[in-house]
């Protein structure tokens, strides 16, 4: 059976995303201690797929995932899951808001609940954990008035009470996850998107020339992001997503033009079906 890794322990948003990616198909969900571990297990073949967060509607790119993806040329994007993310403030039974001494969570959750924390828990210590569910598990076993920002479903799993059901600052807080693997999806079911990583030469209009190829073919871009190439200051690579599949004749022809004329490197991360909540 296919093994699908995610940032654990059970009860994270990533686990829910992995579950949705699996759908009615077969697959064993495997909890990993960190995102680095998901990539390491994909590399060594201990996992066939890994579901990782790539972008949040309020915080932007999950840079660590983009960088690890760039460092793993064998990996492709096999699917996408977009999920509504609601952080709840969970506490051990009997703990009230004014009693909370410390709040535990993943750094992304803290960032997504910044205003809430400032307004309702000003001055309370924050402790970063490997994931939201790791935070809930620690709050449950510490025997202190410590709260966790975690998915609502983590409350029953870790015997915690829901003090504030929705603590995120943006009501429409969404995170996009990618299912990564070594095998490319050859004929993704429409609607699909394709993702690329590319580099350009340092010359006037280099990025414009790439984007122009999309514009003249009326291909809709859905994201462009730059990340340092790590080769030197001011040297970047670009992550770009667009609507369509790499196998579409128009897209195929455009990718050839980009490779031959406008980029220094171009990697097609994959074409994949887009799942919406
Ligand atoms: O800690 C979790 O529950 C995760 O799945 C990680 C993660 C992330 O890294 O973005 C996933 C979704 C939310 O944006 C907050 C945290």
Automatic annotation (TrEMBL):
Q: What class of enzyme is it?
A: lyase
List, in alphabetical order, the Gene Ontology terms for molecular function in this entry. Answer: isomerase activity; prephenate dehydratase activity
Q: What reactions does this protein catalyze?
A: prephenate + H(+) = 3-phenylpyruvate + CO2 + H2O
This entry carries the following GO cellular component terms, namely: cytoplasm
* One Pfam family it belongs to: PDT
**Which keywords accompany this UniProt record?**
Amino-acid biosynthesis, Aromatic amino acid biosynthesis, Isomerase, Lyase, Phenylalanine biosynthesis
Question: What EC identifiers does the entry list?
Answer: 4.2.1.51
Q: Which NCBIfam families does the record cross-reference, listed alphabetically?
A: PRK11898.1
Q: What is this protein called?
A: Prephenate dehydratase
Q: Which organism is it from?
A: Thermacetogenium phaeum (strain ATCC BAA-254 / DSM 26808 / PB)
Per the UniProt record, the lineage of the source organism begins with:
Bacteria, Bacillati, Bacillota, Clostridia, Thermoanaerobacterales
